[in-house]
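Revision sheet: structure tokens.
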Amino acid sequence: MRLGIRTRKLIGTLVLLIFLTLYSFLIMTIAVSGHLPENGFVQFLYYLTAGVIWAFPAKYLITWMVRPDPV
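Predicted:
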């Protein structure tokens, strides 16, 4: 049984929302836990890296979501 595009979009949207919520909580927890040095440049690199990393799993999920239905 293959999922239709509407079902994949629904599932993908829910998974993406849950993933982004949990990911943002993790990133914020690490940021305020004292594990980052007080160096502004290091903090900048942390937030820059954390702000980009989430896009890689999201890319694969979105690609799966919008794949055309088999004929």
